[in-house]
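Typical record is below.
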Amino acid sequence: MDIFIMNLIQQLTLQLIQDNIMATFAEIDEETYQVLNVLRVPDNQEHRGQDYLAIDCKLGGKWIQTSINTRAGVHYSYDSWDPSGKPDFKKNYAVIGGYYDPIADAFYAAKPIHCPSFILNPETFVWEPPIPHPTELPEGADPDTTRYIWNEEQLQWDLIIIPLKLNMFSSKDNNEGLDDLIRRYEQQQKTTLTVSGSVYEIYSQENN
């Protein structure tokens, strides 16, 4: 499945769970420790989620609780997404296709297929490039349109310019203005696709 679609599904799932504030459990393959499924349980069944899913719901399997409030080894407040100061819960929220480390008691995503050089951070259990993300942009660079993206082929961070997104106020109130908007939008889409396709996505830690 395309990584963009997987990330979108995950974000939608997170939002649905957040809205309902229900406990979630991940089904684990007992041989490979891969995450097979992630399901919600009623609040009054949280204390017995394993038995509720395996026995009451007749699903069988091994189920381990996971939390949407934990990402990259940090526990966040569900209502603000600010760090809560509480201990993290198994490093990350479990995602289907990801894995569980029984020794570290941690969930982590599958290694990005387009980035074989990435290394699993033992503290956050997040996949990271072998070279840290640059902390500063070059002098004079516009922070609104300039980004570093990982170049897997060259094993380096490349500085790129991303065009500003167009909006409904970008066009003139006539057909000529509309044609111009469509042309610019199509060009923007081509640029975005070229950028995304070459590096697997802009490094996710930039948005954390």
